[in-house]
Amino acid sequence: MLTQGTQDKAYGKNLVDFTPAILKDDYGHEAVIASENVPRDTWGIADFLSRHPYVLQHPETFEALNKKVQQEYWNFFDNPYGPGYLDKKVYKPTDPVIREIVDKHWDYFWYSTPQAGNATGRWTYLPWYDSNKLKEWFPDKNERTVVLLEFWDLPARSVDMNRTDWKGVWIKVYGIQATKLFVEQLPKMYEIIDNAWKSSDREKYFREYYWWLEDRGQAGRMNNTVKQYVGLYWDELADILMYHPNWYEEIMSINAPEQYLTKTFPPFVKAKFIRGVLGHPAIVKKFGSEADMYTYGVPLSLKAYGFPIHVTMGGVLVSPTHWGISGMEWNVNLPKYVRESLVQKFGDIFAFGRDGEFSLYSMKDVEKDGITLIKQCYRFSKRLYLWKKG
Fold first, then answer.
1. Is 229 a member of any domain?
2. From CA 6, how far away is CA 2, in angstroms rounded?
3. Is the pLDDT of residue 315 over 80?
4. Separation of alpha carbons 255 and 183, rounded Å
5. With 70 as the cut, is the pLDDT of residue 312 above it?
6. Are residues 348 and 383 in the same domain?
7. Cα radius of gyration rounded to whole Å, the chain
8. Taking the alpha carbons of 251, 253, 256, 262 in that order, is the dihedral positive or negative?
């Protein structure tokens, strides 16, 4: 079946394309991200196709399938802190639990695609299922490769949403069972957020999102960063949230990147709503703390909606980190045309990730808040500088 797939004139080469992604910054650093074992990963693609022969009828998915196997096999077999390390066991591609996770991860997203008739009715951010659409969003091949690797990235730690401790906190799980749970709980996390979206009090979750920004400006001492991002200092934002009857309209009337994205790129609205749901006290309590919500909740929630996100040490980070806040925030991989429109509208005030990542920490006014470096990490040891003071 692998040979059959490679014969497709338009997409066949994508199925076995193991060209490394090479990312460079403006400071002389280079990150090379590649398969650790091409023969093994090639076998993995063939093994997957033997169980999912219908994929051959959809060669526009070959690029994503190739990156799926590369990333998942790295998670299972090459990640120095992955499930093998945590379980003190060497896993193999033929292990039933490995195949089960690989298949369930695919099924979760496949049955939400146009090709499958969106049988689940779920919304998915990244058009991973269409190489042509992906190229419109991320025309650079290196960038597109990394975005797809992030899309399929899986953690070796999770929460068990069916079990709680005596405080009502979801139990933490590690190793291969955590990876399995993570995939199995994607529908459950999606449903929690979807129910909030459909509820009559959707507004409170958007309010929670803006209170997060207020907190980062005040307690996190990132006031200038917040100002550049949303056009308001923390105290101005707090005043609107507390006293203005039409607080959302008031915030939206301001000309800043956050509002521009909200108005011109609808998926960003979904992303900030997800952050609002995660910041609600009832949800934070389930994870145990805000730190745990970031560790376990952000990957699970954004993945559930098809947003690419690092779950194995990566993303846009700042240094030095202020006490009380994380050095990394949630982010969205913005298409190139969206990034270009932001720069055209607001100028060179952004430090985008080399995979299109954008977050609160992408604003260059972090310098006014004492930050000297914005960087990006991949697979622990591969680092790029996105902006550096001086």
1. yes
2. 6
3. no
4. 39
5. no
6. yes
7. 21
8. positive
Residue 150 lies in a domain: yes
* Rounded Cα distance, 34 and 28, in Å: 20
pLDDT at 390 over 80: no
Pair 158, 14 in one domain: yes
Q: What is the DSSP string of 108-136?
A: HHHTTSTTTTTTT----SS-TT-HHHHHH
Bridge partners (DSSP) of residue 316 are: 376
Lookup: tokens for 38: 């091409």
Give CA–CA dist 159/169, Å, rounded: 9
Q: What is the mean pLDDT of residues 338-356?
A: 96
Helices (H) and strands (E) counted in the chain, each on its own, are: 20, 9
* Structural domain contains residue 36: yes
State how far the Cα of 152 lies from the Cα of 308, in Å rounded to an integer.
8
Number of domains in the chain: 2
User: What band does 5 get if pLDDT is binned at 50, 70 and 90?
Assistant: confident
Q: Decide if 362 contacts 318 (C-beta within 8 A).
A: no
Distance, CA of 203 to CA of 174 (rounded, Å) = 35
Boundary residue ending a domain (180, 209, 230): 180
| DSSP per position, 283-298 | HHHHHSSHHHIIIIIH
Q: Which domain holds residue 384?
A: 195-388
Tokens of 98: 């490995």
E strands in 144-217 = 157-164, 170-174
